[in-house]
Write a structure and sequence with these properties.
Length: about 130
């Protein structure tokens, strides 16, 4: 079983930065080192959207809205992934989720339906 827990959201003024993290708790003999790990976000009334993903060997993928401002990373020894978010705008306000799938790479990395394991979300609020 794989459980994910986000933290590090919060409220910040436009132009500021946040770095939420996601810890993986793995039971049994599950090995997540070859998983794809991603971040998604959702605002009320809208569909969940992909923000950034990182493949098993480190290749990163970003939504257009995140390019140049967000950086996804992971620490395999800590079973933790991160999302460094800079130059935040009010449009970035959302509930941010981490997710993982048991594939090292492949297509549809930013598609929520590709992911069976999810965290509970951490709120990010950006005020002007």
């Amino acid at each position: 079983q794989v459980q994910l827990a986000e933290s590090g959201g919060g409220s910040v003024q436009a132009g500021g930065s946040l770095k939420p993290s996601c810890v993986y708790v793995v039971s049994g003999a599950i090995d997540i080192s070859m998983n794809t790990m991603s971040w998604f976000r959702q605002v009320p009334g809208k569909q969940r959207e992909g923000v950034a993903g990182i493949e098993a060997y480190g290749t990163t993928i970003y939504a257009d809205s995140a390019k140049g401002r967000f950086t996804i990373s992971k620490d395999r020894y800590k079973n933790t992934q991160y999302l460094q978010m800079n130059n935040l705008t009010p449009e970035d306000t959302a509930l941010y989720y981490c997710a993982t799938r048991e594939r090292a790479s492949g297509t549809y990395i930013l598609s929520p339906r590709e992911y069976p394991y999810w965290g509970q979300g951490t709120q990010v609020t950006v005020f002007s």
